[in-house]
Design goal:
Elements: E1 2-7, H1 13-24, E2 30-34, E3 50-53, H2 60-71, E4 75-77, H3 80-85, H4 88-97, E5 105-108, H5 131-138, E6 142-146, E7 156-158, H6 161-168, E8 176-180, E9 186-193, E10 197-202, H7 221-238, E11 242-250, E12 253-258, H8 268-271, H9 273-293, H10 305-311
Parallel strand pairs: 1-2, 1-3, 3-4
Antiparallel strand pairs: 5-8, 6-7, 6-8, 9-10, 9-11, 11-12
Helix pairs in contact: 1-9
Length: 317
């Protein structure tokens, strides 16, 4: 029996619907269930062929558990080693090398010194930074957001230099990105599952949270194909099995705004019933596919093109 485990936190609608959908297909030798952990011993298998991870970004214990499981052959969706290394600023840097338009972005040192450091820890950092050059490059309005993490936490819209310094003072030890604002005509949030299944969803981030998927943008077939190609290119290079990519359309050009979402919102009350049904069905089919391909004592993880090219000494991009 090959088990597909769902590892999750407070959310309920997607994990439970996923488990029910996998089991409703009655695939011989495959069953889905919530992951159950009563002990974690080094080098011991988890008992799962596939684990779908929805929570380890917030629980370091779970991330350690998943790395051990992956080492013992479990297919983890998403790869916990890459997810531990990934962050939004690197993704933007990579996008500039693979032909994906992104907003102009800089990374900033934290306003407060990190714990257990002092002024002497930063002898390589100019003080003050070249603020004039930074602001000239980015311009205003701009957005400031953490270089890692998600969920619209600590995100600021800024309209002036004075406002920047006021808000940056509130960020304490967070490492922030300052990013050009893309004044968009249309906006889309795109699910990508298995590096091959894409759902492009009209999205209006300026609406209240409960109404953001209530948007009537209708892309032409050509624009749809262009967005699909960008979403696939990003997810192939990053190696995510389950991710969302947000695209803002300015003057006909899709800009990737936020594309490091390996545990994206999938609650039915957020995404709506039609999108929810697609995500549940597609995720269930992909997990079953990975379970059927699973081989004991092998590396069954997905590794992105950036990593595989690096390890094989190929051109990185």
């Amino acid at each position: 029996m090959k088990k597909i485990g769902m590892l999750f936190g407070k959310e309920r609608s997607f994990p439970m619907a996923f488990i029910d959908r996998v089991n409703s297909k009655k695939i011989d030798g495959i069953i889905a269930e919530p992951v159950y952990i009563d002990k974690v011993m080094q080098g011991e298998p988890s008992g799962y062929a596939v684990i779908f991870d929805r929570i380890s970004q917030d629980v370091p214990f779970y991330r350690a558990y998943l790395k051990n499981a992956a080492l013992c052959g479990t297919t983890v969706i998403n790869n916990p080693f890459w997810w531990s290394a990934d962050e939004k600023f690197f993704n933007n840097c990579l996008a500039t090398k693979i032909g994906v338009p992104v907003p102009k972005t800089v990374i900033l040192p934290s306003k407060d010194l990190p714990t257990d450091t002092s002024d002497e820890s930063f002898s390589n950092l100019a003080y003050p930074l070249d603020w004039e050059g930074i602001f000239k490059y980015i311009g205003f309005p701009a957005y400031m957001k953490p270089f890692a993490g998600g969920g619209w936490k600590s995100v600021y819209q800024l309209n002036s230099i004075e406002e920047f310094f006021e808000k940056h003072a509130e960020t304490e030890q967070l490492v922030m990105m300052l990013q050009e604002e893309i004044k968009f005509d249309e906006y889309y949030r795109c699910y990508c599952i298995g590096g091959k299944y894409v759902r492009i969803m009209p999205y209006e981030p300026r609406n209240p949270h409960a109404l953001r998927y209530v948007a009537d943008f209708k892309p032409s077939p050509e624009r749809y194909k262009l967005m699909e190609d960008i979403v696939l290119r990003i997810c192939h290079y990053l190696g995510y099995d389950f991710n969302t990519v947000e695209l803002a359309i300015r003057d006909g050009v899709p800009y990737a705004i936020d594309f490091c979402n390996p545990a994206p919102d999938a609650e039915v009350t957020s995404v709506g019933q039609e999108n929810f049904d697609w995500v549940v069905e597609t995720a269930a089919n992909y997990a079953i596919e990975k379970a059927m391909e699973h081989k004991d004592d092998m590396d069954n993880l997905t590794w992105g093109t950036y990593i595989t090219n690096s390890s094989s000494k190929k051109k990185l991009y």
